[in-house]
Write a structure and sequence with these properties.
Elements (H helix, E strand, L loop, with lengths): L19 H10 L3 H5 L7 H17 L9 H4 L9 H17 L7 H30 L6
Length: about 140
């Protein structure tokens, strides 16, 4: 079997890391190099929210009149457990959303109604098409 001559370009990459001088040259040519060269330590959302909660708890930690009240009494009524009636209405709302759907999702009833309408529509369409094509093409009748 003869061997054919081919022209192959040598690879233009390196298998190792680049030198610091090459890295500096690449960063110098980069249009965004100046923006990302210096590290920035911004506050995270967690740090901001935790600082707000600490500052909000600070006035509550100093009770007025020098009396020490337990923290359970300082809680606003909105953070208490909802009554059983509200829990039941929440369950009813979730079941209603599952059956009837929400603005963004279809409920089970709507899904089943669409599927039934689709099935009936395709069966009626098939019968009409058979009748029309049978009449046009003169389908054979069995006797």
């Amino acid at each position: 079997m003869p061997v054919e001559r081919t022209v192959i370009c040598p690879p233009r990459c390196r298998m190792g890391a680049i030198t610091p001088e090459e890295r500096a040259a690449v960063r110098g040519r980069s249009p965004v190099g100046g923006k990302y060269d210096s590290p920035v330590n911004r506050e995270s959302a967690y740090e901001i929210l935790s600082r707000r909660s600490v500052s909000a708890d600070a006035p509550a930690a100093r009770p007025s009149g020098g009396q020490d009240r337990p923290r359970a009494q300082e809680r606003p009524p909105a953070q208490e457990q909802p009554p059983a009636q509200e829990q039941g209405s929440e369950l009813c709302r979730q079941v209603g959303d599952l059956l009837w759907g929400t603005k963004r999702r279809q409920g089970m009833v709507e899904t089943m109604a669409k599927q039934a309408a689709r099935t009936v529509g395709s069966q009626i369409g098939r019968q009409i098409l058979r009748g029309v094509l049978g009449g046009i093409l003169g389908g054979s009748r069995r006797r």
